[in-house]
């Protein structure tokens, strides 16, 4: 079955309905596994790959830039630069004061990312985190210059509040600057409230693309974490997943089990299929550390849940 690409807002980019999360590259996936994962992802018909300059600075022995470096190596070895859409980000701390969205730092950071990626342009460049200390006019002016210089095709915002996103869009319009065309928020079957209540109206008003992160709630929605002792199964389990181990989270897992059985599928596949069917969502980000984990992700792009299944999952994950 062919993977149908989607318009990423008004960016002009055509992307697969899922994006590969490059946070694992050089972290939970070593170089050999990283290159194999990227090969397999593109072989399945997907073209969207998400990374950031800070990935994976948090891992022992890393300093940041490891994911971009491995992705750049793959781009050179595969020769598939023109077949993929690459998103990366700036703003998170890289140490030694290298953080934020000051124009001079954006100019420095984009050149470093381009060098690591071994490419002369970035398809989608995100502000990774809002920088309240830098005027939005300055940040957007710097991004606009990158677009005009051909270093960046489109820009996006990650981890912005609805109010700040709305303000940024107004400033771009008023000043004739490149605007944020894509939003990268936290959104999944469990984490719904902020996106649906606050961000979605802005997304729809301004026709933004949406590429949400933690699409599987850091692995919780796969069903592999069901009791406190399960959180030690993975590198990031203990630090992230514990917040989901509550009656609401377990109810969501129970409903995912039921729907997955009905479709002869898996909880992960069903959770992603639900997410891809939500208003405003273009291409959620998914991660895998081993190629054996890819089939559940690939299957999600081919699974269309009926209205009853979508409603059952909505009610089971209700947050009000």
TrEMBL record:
UniProt-listed InterPro entries: AKR_Detox_Biosynth (IPR050523), NAD(P)_OxRdtase_dom_sf (IPR036812), NADP_OxRdtase_dom (IPR023210)
UniProt superkingdom: Bacteria
Residue stretches making up the NADP-dependent oxidoreductase domain: 18-313
Nucleus found in the keyword field: no
Keywords: Oxidoreductase
GO MF annotations in UniProt: oxidoreductase activity
Listed Pfam families: Aldo_ket_red (PF00248)
One GO CC annotation: cytosol
PANTHER family in the cross-refs: NADH-SPECIFIC METHYLGLYOXAL REDUCTASE-RELATED, OXIDOREDUCTASE-RELATED
Entry protein name: Predicted oxidoreductase
Organism: Lampropedia hyalina DSM 16112
């Amino acid at each position: 079955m062919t993977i149908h690409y989607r318009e990423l807002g008004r960016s002009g980019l055509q992307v697969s309905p899922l994006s590969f999360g490059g946070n694992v590259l050089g972290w939970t996936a070593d170089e050999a596994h990283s290159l194999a994962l990227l090969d397999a992802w593109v072989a399945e018909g997907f073209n969207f790959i998400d990374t950031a300059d800070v990935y994976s600075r948090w891992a022992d022995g890393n300093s940041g830039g490891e994911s971009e470096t491995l992705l750049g190596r793959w781009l050179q070895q595969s020769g598939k630069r023109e077949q993929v859409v690459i998103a990366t980000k700036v703003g998170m701390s890289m140490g030694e004061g290298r953080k934020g969205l000051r124009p001079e730092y954006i100019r420095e950071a984009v050149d470093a990312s381009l060098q690591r990626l071994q490419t002369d342009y970035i398809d989608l460049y995100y502000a990774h985190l809002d920088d309240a200390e830098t005027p939005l006019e300055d940040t957007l002016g710097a991004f606009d210059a990158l677009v005009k210089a051909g270093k960046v095709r489109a820009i996006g915002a990650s981890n912005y509040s609805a109010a700040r996103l709305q303000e940024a869009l107004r400033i771009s319009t008023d000043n004739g600057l490149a605007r944020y065309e894509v939003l990268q928020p936290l959104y999944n079957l469990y984490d719904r409230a902020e996106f649906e209540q606050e961000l979605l109206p802005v997304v729809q008003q301004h026709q933004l693309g949406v590429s949400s992160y933690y699409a599987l709630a850091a692995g919780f929605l796969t069903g592999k974490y069901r009791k406190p002792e399960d959180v030690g199964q993975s590198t990031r389990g203990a630090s992230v997943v514990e917040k989901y181990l509550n009656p609401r989270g377990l109810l969501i897992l129970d409903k995912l089990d039921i729907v997955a059985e009905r479709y002869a599928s898996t909880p992960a596949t069903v959770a992603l299929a639900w997410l891809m069917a939500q208003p405003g969502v273009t291409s959620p980000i998914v991660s895998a550390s081993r190629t054996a984990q890819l089939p559940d992700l690939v299957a999600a792009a081919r699974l269309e849940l009926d209205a009853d299944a979508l409603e059952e999952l909505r009610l089971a994950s209700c947050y009000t």
